Amino acid sequence: MSSASDHDAGRPTAPSLSDIPGLIRFSADVTETLRHDDGVYCFDREWAEAVNRGRSPRYTLMVALGFSRAEAAGYRDLPRTALEQVNAAISDRSQLSIGDRGLALWALARLGDARAAEWVTDLERVTADELRPLEGMEIGWLVTGAAAAVEAGLPAERLLADLLGTLRSRRATKSPLFHHLGTGRGRALLPNFATQIYSVLALADVARITNDQQALAEATALADLLVELRGADCGWPWLFHAEKGRVVETYQVYSVHQDAMAPMAYFSLAAATGEQRYAAAGAEGLPWCFGENELGFQFYDANARFAHRAIKRGGWADRAELWANTLAGVAGLRRRLTLGSPVVNTTCRPYHLGWIMEAWAGREANVELLGRSR
User: For residue range 111-129, what is the model confidence (pLDDT) as tens digits?
Assistant: First the structure.
């Protein structure tokens, strides 16, 4: 298998499933096409248009986290440094949500930056009322950031305990899934995959760093259910009913879930438990991005320096099917409606590339588990 140093020179070619360092190099290269002159990354770009839309300090922090892991894993000649990216993201704190501040703490703590201490103090001032409307993924980032601060030796134990309590207050009473919001009703009962997978990551990190056995049990129960609910092609579904513990709507199936977010969480859980089956579960979604999906589509375009976003329902059916199946799920109906044909969502977002690096840098050997599980 290739090492990081084998890919230090030259522009990456199309990545292959067996060459994870090549995928990491490809990801770092593509981020350069999505960056504004001041160092902040865009929100997204369409495949057919060379226009970077919007600005996202959030995505800039996610890219920084990926670069920081790649730096630690020995990847050289990356186009930017993680510290440069963090500085660009936090230059205007007014642009950061509460959840984004969790990402900032995570990045600064990992980098050993002295400024992390002031972000701990800042987050200790956040009230329960301010946390309640946040989506589950943001609570996950906050817990992960606080855990990273504790691991870095910062006095963040109280912050971690408070945020972990907030996360646990959202756990469903009838399944291991977590609510989407802290309100306990309406959309709170219909969480997406992001809420679930960032919860697995947060709980796994807490368990590994603090030896919290309750967190470990919560993480493994949730991770096991998500594996049970994924598709036959290892595609991770999008929307769940938290209390019923089942899938409400499959689409969109996002490439970032397949090659990055699920690996991030399951690799962390493998480190916390010592069980390789979780590392295998995280890796098993990667072939989906290399054509083992219902369209036979390869999501990485080296010529265009682009990573496509998802498989969705085409045209009007995309939203119509989502709403129809959501309503059916709330009503307790198990049968799903199919209102359109699958098509590719041809957009690219910077965080996708950052999270690929975060998932795989230093953990490249986990791809070898695919041979044992297939």
Answer: 999 999 999 999 999 999 9
**Does the structure show a pLDDT above 80 at 336?**
no
Q: In 3-state terms, what secondary structure has residue 328? A: helix
Q: Are 169 and 139 in contact (CB under 8 A)?
A: no
Domains of the chain: 4-373 (1.50.10.10)
Query: With 0-12 CB in 10 A as exposed, 13-18 as middle and 19+ as buried, what is 1?
Result: exposed
Is the peptide bond preceding residue 196 cis, with omega within 30 degrees of 0? no
Burial of 105 (0-12, 13-18, 19+ CB in 10 A): buried
- H/E stretch holding 59 reads helix 57-72
Tokens 């907030």, located at residue? 166
Torsion of CA 102, 103, 106, 109, to 10 degrees: -90
* Pair type for strands 44-46 and 52-53: antiparallel
Question: Alpha helices of 170-310 — where are they, by DSSP H?
Answer: 193-210, 213-229, 255-256, 262-273, 276-283, 286-289
DSSP state of 4: G
8 pLDDT above the threshold of 50: no
Fill in the amino acid letter for 332: G
Query: How far does CA 43 lie from the centroid of its chain?
Result: 16
CA dihedral 13, 18, 20, 23 (to 10 degrees): 30
* Amino acid in position 292: E
